[in-house]
Design goal:
The chain is an alpha+beta fold and 457 residues long. It is 41% helix and 19% strand. Helix 6 crosses helix 8 and helix 8 packs across helix 11. The C terminus is likely disordered. Bound molecules: zinc ion.
Amino acid sequence: MLKTILTIILGLSLLTITTAFNYPRVTVANNEAVLNFPESVTFSAIVTSDSEIRSIVLEYGNEQQTCGEVTAKAFPQFSPGKNVEAKWTWEMRQSGSLPPGAFLWWRWRVTDANGNETLSETKTITWLDDIHDWKFMSNSDFLRLHWYEGDQSFAIDLAKFAYNGLLFNETQSGLKAEAPINIYIYADTKDLQDAILYEPSWTGGQAFPDQDIVILGISPSDLDWGRDAIVHELTHVLVGHQTFSCLGDVPTWLNEGLAVYSEGELDSSSQRQLDEAIRLDTLLTVRSLSSGFSEVADKANLSYTQSYSLTKFLLETYGQEKMTALLLSLRDGLAIDSALLQAYGFDIDGLEDAWRQAIDARPQPESTQPTEVPTPTFVPTIVPVSGAILANQITPTTIPTSSFGQPTPEVPVRTAPPLWLTLTLLGLCCVFLILIGMVILGFVVRNQNLKEAKNVE
Ligand SMILES: [Zn+2]
């Protein structure tokens, strides 16, 4: 028995030695990424091998929720040999910019002349500028606040509001944080715009739910606005997380409604605008708020306020469990009408009827009236400062090989034939029935006449 065991151990040892001996000796040294924020990042490494190096592939990406495995590949040029330098630059202007704070990762796949393949360790780096003296604080497992302007009390204040926002969302809307959210506070809008390549004419900030990142421009003198904005954007991250899938989409009124609801009561001017829209019967239809908001400032503000009112109605009348059920149905790919029906027993029109009744508004216009749908646009994820003109929402980027795009705006579907068609068909039916009646009557009268004629005979 002992002899057998010794034989096995000896055999295994020999196997190990043989494997080690045959294993290609490829080393990847000086493996680094140098950031040129926000333009580009250059990956480089010195690759050494026993035999000539045939190919070097850089695999890279950024950490985010995706529908499937997403790995970008780059093929750096190098002079053939056993000791080569590989270098490749990721140009953000070509791929679309990443938000500050994104986690980048990369690794090298090296193949030598004998066909042996070696994969280097995966390294990571945070995509962030080094021109600001970033400070960090955290007051919860789910919040990481980064800022550079303003003292500690400024950060503590914002972190406190962010924490209360998370708590409010969990208890009032059923939205729970699932992963730490990194919040980057720039000193103002200009600094924020310098940090991203695209051209934002919007003010404020942006949420990147698939990367658990929020970026905001808040100066210490603008704290009141910042407190609301931070909670608003955090809510977008929570909604994005809860509903993430490759199937579904969340209507804009619901996403924005939850975000504005998390900020607390409406401010007085928004409340006045809503009251006036109710009084003058100028409310926008719920369907028109599903895919995008108007770019006209007044209408855009009313869109946010109505979204708030709708969401408040759903939450405060039917409770947070039903809201969670609605969001999960949307995540699972149900269209909004079906998702509403499943959770609440009414579709969008039913919701609009119930909501209008609850806020003492006039019933919605006849369903035969064409629903007003503004040109679908992405909306800024933040309530604009009063008077600011809305611009398109910035599209969070994906890495080049990503095969999925932005959700398609939902197009309202008419569920019943139009009234004019129904009436025309009814009219035709009546004429047809009258004609048949006249023919039958004609026969009866003719038979009667014949009978009478016979009787006379
Ligand atoms: Zn928003």
